Amino acid sequence: MKTAFTYIHFVAAMLALIFLSGCGKEEGYAGNGGTGGGTEEEKPEVIVPEAPEEIVEGNVFVVDFFSDLEGGSGFFDTRDWNLAAGHILAQSGKRPVVYMFDGTGFSAGEVNPALRIANNVKGNAFFAQSEATSDHVDGTGIVTLYQISDYDGIVSGSTFMSGCTIPVPLTQSTPICIFTSTISSAEDVSTILNEGKSRLYYDAVLVGTVSNGAREEVEKYLQEDGGMIRYTFHETDGKSSSLAVIVPASFVCRDISFMDVSGFPCYRVSVEKLEQL
Amino acid sequence: MRKIFVISVLLAASFCSLGAQETISLRVMTMNVKEGAKYASYASEPYAELIRQYSPDVVAFQEVHNRTLLNGVKDWLSEVAIQTGMMPYFCKSISYMGGDFGVGILSRYPFYKAEKIVSVMEGAKEDRATGWIYIMLPSGAKVRVASTHLALESSQITIRNIADVNKNIFAEDTQTPTLLIGDFNATPDSDAITYARNKWQNIITDNIFTLPSDDPDTRLDYVMGYPKSWKCTHYEVIARPDLSDHCFIVADVTITVE
Fold it and tell me: What residues of chain B, 133 to 192, have a C-beta less than 8 Å from chain A?
């Protein structure tokens, strides 16, 4: 009896140690976006070379990003998806490689607008969620007329990033993953760069949004710890979010221009893959 | 006093350990739709109607036609997706009749990642695709669901196909609970299924038959899981000779992971 009681004491002490070491742990975000530092020591300075001024048009591709820049999932509530399909079918010349419809929702059992559009234009559809799964999920619908070789993405805590790899028609057809994400904190962008760095530093670009309330901290993080990436924010007066473009250093965002497409607010993002830096 | 301390610690430790487990529950369905839905004249609605009736979370398709001359150059899987309110993922095995032939997946929830492999095996008449999607469930748990249609020329070729699937699906991820669903083109007592069960759990262990649908006496279709701790709480073998020569399987499966 005395032995059994001593054993219980031992087990309880072990369990207490486990309990005390496990509870109250806070998870922070890695302060270093990709240069392998993050310690108390001085981090090596990362210098992203200036992009050449001359643009090689053959290496420029375009993404049309449709968004109210207000979040939520009501983008198609008062808009006719047929008009979006009409816009896609009307493109000629340097056509967008991907069309993103930010602020759409995915409701289980209901047809996603991106799927309707894709079916109409004989393209392929994808839905990039921006929040945890439920019967209704906010996110971005994606349509492309190109063959999709894979869908890539991360879900980590409250950070979501997804996209598709397509053969982008540059001077040489080049597989590039076009990601999207709704960035609401520096922790989001830290997670994106740390968990997505195998692509975001090489052969992927991100076109998404950043909450204006977090923009300053996100920008600070990208400047200090972003590593070999370039970023561009495009703010529109009176909106709660800005357009965010993050590309590897071997790419550069050349232009973001706004278009009103039959009542659809659209940002045309032009990105160049640099032949040399 | 000592008793109170011990009990408190045990209770606290139990609470912490309970929070670390999560249970994944899914309703899955496998549908070999026979040559692109040929039995239904390549229509999508009869299959969509059946899916709506059973309301699965994920459907794994085999023998899907995508924009072939036979099916009227349509994206059949996307049609079913629209008719069911699910998201599609098509994986091409081969080019066929002006379009593509392969496997597909429909998901009730958005998937954040999807991959596929196309197995090329010496001696096989055609290449074979296996595709999988990653889903974050409403519980927050992540699961991976794959659709496969294995080679049938010989047991050894089927085994090589399984080996190729295993090598690729587990190349970078051996942690996420995974379901491998579809037409294995092998009977339960075959060398191929014995080989598959080295890695995968045959979740429905009852002696069921899935072929031919008008009088089934053979089993070629499976719901397999990894790791080997899945449970099947309910299943049904659905015989629809008007839709396919294969019976379809719908199964409620669950796993508890740390």
Answer: 133-138, 140, 142
